[in-house]
Write a structure and sequence with these properties.
Length: 118
């Protein structure tokens, strides 16, 4: 069974930085798209950033210029570098792996908490 594991969350002050990591138990060459979602209390889960097999990226408007997503195929991993963090970024961040979503081959991690507070 495919496993997706996030790490790197924690408590950071406003204006600080964090880098989240996500590793999948399958070959990155089989992954069409990696993505990071987040969910704050009382809110719906939202797409933060994604990167496809061609390196094309998408970002939530509110994080453009502050967050950067990358993928390292040799490590079967993706990273989300987050700078200039704000209290509104506080949420549980989930890694999502799309191998073939139409065939039900997509996977979620369990999430990692990011708290931005002074």
């Amino acid at each position: 069974q495919t496993k997706v594991v996030e790490s790197g969350g924690g408590l950071v002050q406003p204006g600080g930085s964090l880098t989240l990591s996500c590793t999948a138990s399958i070959s990155a060459s089989a992954i069409y798209e990696w993505a990071w979602y987040r969910q704050a209390p009382g809110s719906e889960r939202e797409l933060v950033a994604s990167i496809d097999s061609g390196g094309r990226t998408k970002y939530l408007d509110s994080v453009k210029g502050r967050f950067r997503i990358s993928r390292v195929n040799l490590k079967n991993s993706t990273y989300l570098q987050m700078n200039s963090l704000q209290s509104e970024d506080t949420a549980v961040y989930y890694c999502y792996v799309d191998v073939a979503r139409a065939l039900g081959m997509d996977y979620w991690g369990k999430g990692t908490q990011v708290t931005v507070s002074s």
